[in-house]
From TrEMBL:
Keywords from the UniProt entry: Disulfide bond, FAD, Flavoprotein, Membrane, Oxidoreductase, Signal, Transmembrane, Transmembrane helix
Catalytic activity from the UniProt record: 2 R'C(R)SH + O2 = R'C(R)S-S(R)CR' + H2O2
EC number(s) per entry: 1.8.3.2
Full protein name: Sulfhydryl oxidase
Cofactor: FAD
Annotated GO CC locations: extracellular space; Golgi membrane
Similarity-based family: Belongs to the quiescin-sulfhydryl oxidase (QSOX) family.
Recorded superkingdom: Eukaryota
Domain ERV/ALR sulfhydryl oxidase stretches: 343-452
MF annotations from Gene Ontology: flavin-dependent sulfhydryl oxidase activity; protein disulfide isomerase activity
Function: Catalyzes the oxidation of sulfhydryl groups in peptide and protein thiols to disulfides with the reduction of oxygen to hydrogen peroxide.
Alphabetical GO biological process terms: protein folding
Amino acid sequence: MAVSSSSWCGALHQYAPTCGAWHPIVHDWNPAIRIGVLNCADEQNTAICRDYGVQFYPTFRFFGANTKDFTQGENYKGETDREVQSVRHVIIDYLESLPAEHRPTACPSFQPLSSGDITSLFIRKKPHYTAIIFESETSYVGREVILDLMQFEHIVVRRALDSNKAMMEKLGVVSAPSCYLIHPNASRGLINIVNPLRSVFSSHLKSLPGVRKKAGAHSALPEKLPEEDKEEEVTWKDYDKSKLYTADLESALHYLLRVELATHQTLEGEKLKTFKDFVTLLYKLFPGRPHVVKLLETLQEWLVSMPLDKIPYDAILDLVNNKMRISGIYLTNHVEWVGCQGSRAQLRGYPCSLWKLFHSLTVQAAAQPNALANTEFEGDALATLKTMRGYIREFFGCRECAQHFEAMAKESMDSVKTADEAVLWLWRKHNLVNKRLAGAPSEDPESPKVEWPTPELCSACHEEINGLHNWNEKEVLVFLKRHYGAQEISLKYAD
Ligand code: FAD
């Protein structure tokens, strides 16, 4: 199984107990399923992520055993939620679904025992323990314990269904899940476990006398790409929190055009429309340097001139990368985070810059009411928000973030009537996200997730009414227009 993740994806930092520590998910299941993790946020992996068609994170891909030819793997059961337990259950379902030729030879049987099978276990003495987990048909406990113990010697684990009432009664099993144990000396009985959880059953069975890991058992550690262990060094750049940096905005454009969107082989349908809208908006509103705006204009004109309803992304990349540099029209080809730098390499960066990019676009739309004249957005106060919504829905790699944003948009975006309201809507929603994520693993201690702007940045934005904090939204709007306005942007660190 391969998991494609993204080191910047905030939602995946919460997921880190799963991503970073695959250990507990499939601890000891290695002969049946091996896990590899691929970081698609790393530009070096863009091509391979594209080959495998990975566009959102996390993506789980399953590959049957003995697969020789290239395959993109299987998105088994579509999107898996990020709970460790759900991932384990999906793995089990997948293993059970495999045809014999793709089932790993080491994969144990999950087939429930019949009454006859159980009785025959009592007849002949075995040189090992046999544990039978009685459970309901929908329970995963038995199959998980079977996999947990598959690399242990002196024990075999099987499962039986609680629908076999007669056998349960005969053995004195009164509830499910329960574990019935047959000792090597043929004595047998129910294990007395108060808390009938998979982990409790497994650790009890592993602690039985003589039960130990088989010599040469596979390591429980997941397959890792070499760079996974490396903690990238961060060279800190001094910056002013009250400023917006061109380097962050241009790095956002570089990343989304050359990494995030580049995972697509072609753009068509809703994706192509969203991309065209986004480029139109950028060309008209991006508060960047002339050589970047000219590139956006060229890209927009090229897209409009293309009569195709399907565009290979390589053609877009070709235009962004090569055609223009000679004439002094170009976009930086690497990220240079300044106001978005993290104290560790996997913190902040791209999602931070995307927020900043969209805040600055809403502010530009409010500051230049005629900027979108003669485009299909003319007179549309919702143009920037709608385009942002489309981009996040169609392209933003962090699926969980996209779902949350879509829910917020659905709830109230339509109530926005003016460009100023659009600026404030996005500010409010961003603060809601900050509030929700405060204290989350994605929080950089150097940049805590607080409601923003802080009093140090804008004291007039904060008031108290009857002893309670209140935003002065008029002042907030003035502040946002200044902070994200074109005049205030710093060129420091922009190459
Ligand atoms: P960010 O929140 O990225 O903010 C970047 C900068 O914007 C701040 O440094 C500050 O200068 C400014 N800023 C802060 N608040 C505001 C505001 N209210 N108005 C204007 N400017 C402000 N991560 C998750 O884990 N779960 C999610 O559901 C999720 N949803 C997201 C949805 C979207 C649309 C985006 C773009 C990102 C989302 N993320 C989510 C990522 C997360 O919001 C942060 O971007 C990421 O964790 C990096 O945080 P940061 O500390 O750099 O600050």
